[in-house]
Write the structure tokens for this entry.
Amino acid sequence: MSCLSIPSVAASCSLLLFTCSITGQAHADSMSALIAQKSVQSDTHARYISSYRVVPAVKVSTHSTIQRASLPRRSTEVLPTYNNNYSTSSTYQYPEMQRQAPQVLPAFLSGNYDNVDSEYLPLLSSAEMQSSMAAREVVSTARKMALNERTIIKGGCWDYLNAVFNRAGVTRNTIHKGTYAQGPYASSSDIEAGDWLYYINHGYNGVEHSGLFVGWVDERAKQALILSYAGENRREPARYRVYDLSNVYQIMRPSV
């Protein structure tokens, strides 16, 4: 068994201490570098936080600031009738509608009817009282058959009006003759109360139809009160209704 000499042991210890010293120094340097890096990161984060400004929350009010416009007072002054030289100024006031005084209807129109609107009874009264003798007979006979007797005729519109003219004891003269498709179509000034009209029924698929003319509701718009009979097994009396007479292609007028 060999033994190491004391100088050899001393040299080995010195070498070990030197190695540990070097290792400790390297570890210390590594820790210093890591601490420096963390310090830089912390400083950068602090500068970022300090540069960021927090915007306070906006306060939202639920109180409405909308104000309703006050309505202008309606003028009681009646302006002149509308004409083509109207003004487009914003100060224009529409005239008040003038209501006509209710007319006293004759006794033969007193009653409640479901086949004529009451607002058209004065027009029917005027047609019966102001027409020529032959037209008056036709309008009067048609009114009795439609409103009072509620007569039902087998057939359609032609059959009903033919029965009216026969019962009134008058003949009919054709004063305007055209065709359904090509016309010529009559002017509104050519039509009188008691006339038997053929026209295009724009209110019902544009079919051809015939009816008894009573009077104009709005002549400029070609809207007129007509006695119309549907017939064809509907079992309904004739009815006074407003029709569009833009395309009247035949007029037959009663005569004695």
Summary: The chain is about 35% helix and 20% strand. The longest helix spans residues 6-51. The CA atoms of residues 174 and 226 lie 18 Å apart.
